[in-house]
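Q: Fold this one first, please.
A: Sequence and structure below.
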Amino acid sequence: LFGTVEVGRAANVYLQVLSAGRDAARLGVRGGTDTELRALVTIETANLASPIPTSCTAGAPGMCITRGSSPGPSSVKMEVCYNHPLIVGIPAVLPNPWLLCSSTTMRVLT
C-alpha cells in the first residue's frame, strides 16, 4: 500500500517538474534569459517539499539550460532535476530521496 502511495506522489511531483521545464524551454525560445527561465521553474515548483537549486550539476538536483545553434534552427534545452523525499522509504526498491529529472528541447522556428 505504501509503495502505491509513494509512486503516486512521485508521479505528481514529476509532472510538476516536467511542466515547469517545458514552460521554461518555451519561454527560452521566445527570448527569455537564463535568469527568467530559472525564476519560472522556481515559481512553478514552489509547492514542492524543498526548492530546486538553480545550479547545474550532472546527476544532481538543479536546472541546466543549454542553448544550441546546430545546423538549422536554434534550440533551448531545459533539464530540471529534483530530489523527491519519500514518506516511507522502500529499501532496495526506491531510493530515498528519489531523483526525478525531466529534459525538454524546443527549437526556434522562423
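Q: Good. Now the second chain.
A: Here it is, same layout.
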Amino acid sequence: GTFACYGSIFLLNCLFIKKYMNFTMPLGTILLRPFLCSAVCCAAAYGSWKGLILLLGYNRLWVIAALGIAVAVYALCVLMFKVLSKEDMVLIPGGTKIGKILERRGWLHE
C-alpha cells in the first residue's frame, strides 16, 4: 500500500509539473538507471550468497560477504550507468575532488 501511495504521488507530481511548468522530467535518468543498478545489485547479492553456500557450505558469515559483494557491484553499476552527476557529487563531503576524478574518466552524466 505504501509503495502504491508514493507511486501515485510521484506520478501526479510529474503530471502537474509538466502541465503547469511545461517541464518534462528525464524519467530514464531518475528511475530507470537506479532501478537497473538495484536489480543487478540484488542479483549479485543472491547469486554470491547461493554460490558461497554451494561451494563452502552454510555459514552465517556468507551473508556479510554477499552484502559486501553487492555493495561493490552497486557502486560499479552506478558508475557504469552514469547515475551520478557533478551536482550530486558536490553535495557529499569531499565530493568536489571525487567528482573531478569521475568526470575525467567519463563516469558522470551531464
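Q: Anything worth noting on the second one?
A: Residues 21 and 34 are 25 Å apart (CA to CA).
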